[in-house]
Write a structure and sequence with these properties.
Length: 334
């Protein structure tokens, strides 16, 4: 008997206008709207690891009213375009079932992950922590990482702003810490141990602010407290586990975490008031904004000269490049 091949399912970036395809999607959002004739229709944002697309259910929407954001669905879609972008008319749809895994479904189809090896990123992060000379700080940071390893390796850095993919929090933290180390030789007045610890822990509160498997969302405490205060609380908790942790060091690290977003209107309760905190804020903002630039360019249509307007960056990004694109630079090795 011949061995059956697994069926092939197209990803969002492979869908072509005029085709009818059956594939799996993650429901990003749902909106009930009204047609010109007064009848309701359902507008659904569908997502997989290759992108996000709009879709519509025009008729018989009552059977889908229990659908919610975060659900995984198998859908038959008629691929159209609207204003130059893919738009799907959903013909049939059901929730994911156990039999789908037997047919070859893999949850990783729906999850966009960092391009970099997660275990290698984690090893690099711990190597940089080992460069902290003050033993109280070093032991405390390793304590936090040990407690948060599993979730730290998986979470995005944000839902949509920067590094919005699984593993993005770790990738951002490694690149930020590495960038800080590259520049510290030019600013020898700064306390290197405070900068390294601050870079590693600045977003640690996101390990409690965000949660989820196929789709990440805010936890209840994350919405009510926020990652900045949650990060400060984690710092205090693990500093208390290190005997005789110096009060002045704790104060400086608390300030770095509380002020790392730079301005009160950006979410920080205080502005950076030490050179280490100011340095960390600038470097954090740089890595976040640069990744926004590169991510927008990577996901732009190949036939466009500029990206769509980027609300966070407040501009359209020019897609013309000079010469051959360089490979992404790896973190430095010591």
């Amino acid at each position: 008997m011949p061995i059956r091949k697994r069926p092939e399912f197209k990803r969002i970036n492979e869908l072509q206008e005029g085709n009818v395809e059956i594939s799996y999607f993650l429901v990003e959002s749902i909106d009930i709207r009204t047609k010109a004739d007064g009848e309701e229709f359902m507008a659904i944002r569908l997502k997989d690891r290759t992108g996000i697309t709009d879709s519509r259910i025009w008729d018989d929407i009552d059977r889908y009213r229990e659908l919610k954001a975060g659900d995984v669905v198998k859908a038959e879609v008629d691929v159209r375009t609207y204003k130059g972008k893919p738009s799907l008319n959903i013909q049939r749809m059901r929730l994911l079932q156990e039999r789908d895994f037997e047919e070859g479904f893999d949850v990783r189809w729906l999850q966009e992950w960092s391009e970099y090896d997660i275990d290698e990123l984690w090893a690099r992060l711990k190597q940089m922590v080992d460069r902290i000379e003050e033993e109280h700080i070093r032991h405390m940071v390793h304590s936090v990482l040990g407690a948060k390893e599993e979730v730290f390796k998986k979470l995005p850095a944000a839902q949509s702003m920067h590094h919005p993919y699984f593993g993005g929090l770790l990738e951002h933290t490694v690149w930020l810490t590495d960038n800080c180390l590259r520049l510290l030789d030019n600013y020898r007045e700064l306390n290197k141990d405070l900068v390294i610890a601050g870079a590693v822990l600045h977003d640690i509160g996101k390990t409690e602010e965000l949660a989820g498997e196929s789709r990440v969302d805010y936890t209840t405490k994350g919405r009510l407290i926020g990652h900045i205060i949650q990060g400060r609380d984690l710092l205090r908790k693990h500093a208390a586990l290190v005997p005789d942790f110096p009060d002045d060091i704790l104060l400086h690290l608390e300030h770095i975490i509380l002020s790392h977003q730079g301005e009160r209107e950006w979410g920080s309760p205080v502005v950076p008031s030490t050179p280490e905190a100011f340095f960390l804020h600038i470097m954090d903002n740089f890595d976040a904004k640069m990744r926004m630039f590169l991510y927008a360019m990577k996901n732009a249509p190949a036939d466009k000269e500029f990206t769509d307007y980027h609300r966070a960056l407040e501009r359209r990004i020019f897609l013309g490049r000079v010469g051959k694109e360089a490979e992404a630079e790896e973190p430095i090795e010591e």
